[in-house]
Amino acid sequence: GLASVYGEEIYDDQLLELVGRKTNKRRSGLTKTCRMVLIQAGRPLSAREVCNEIMSQSPPLLLSHKDPMASVNTLLSRLAEYGEARVATDETGRRTWQWVSTPEHPLTQAADIH
After folding, report:
1. CA angle at residue 60 from 90 to 7, to 5 degrees?
2. How far apart are CA 84 and CA 100, in angstroms?
3. 76: Cβ–Cβ under 8 A, 6 or more apart, which residues?
4. Across 6-93, where does the E strand assignment appear?
5. Nearest Cα to Cα of residue 68 among 48, 41, 39
6. Separation of alpha carbons 87 and 65, rounded Å
7. Distance between CA atoms of 86 and 9, rounded to whole angstroms?
8. What's the pLDDT tens digit per position in 28-75?
């Protein structure tokens, strides 16, 4: 109601999405949050741990996803492809991801060889 009277610009984007007044097809907030969870952890995390942390910090980010675990797995794999995260396995054989402080880009590595 207040948005109708005063205009939607008085509310931030996250609140507008929460009350259904704004739709955002591309949700880059989830990618940013995955990055922040890995950075703050300082240790390798499983996709389940990342998902649980996101649910505790920002539940609305995962509410629109049919399968939040699949979305988080996909994003973590992309972060690894970008060289921002390192993939490993824990003692039980599960995949884990850890933030890489300096991205490992192929061009950067090739330049270091010369």
Report:
1. 150
2. 5
3. 34, 47, 50, 85, 97
4. 85-89
5. 48
6. 24
7. 40
8. 689 999 999 999 998 999 999 999 999 999 889 898 889 999 999 999
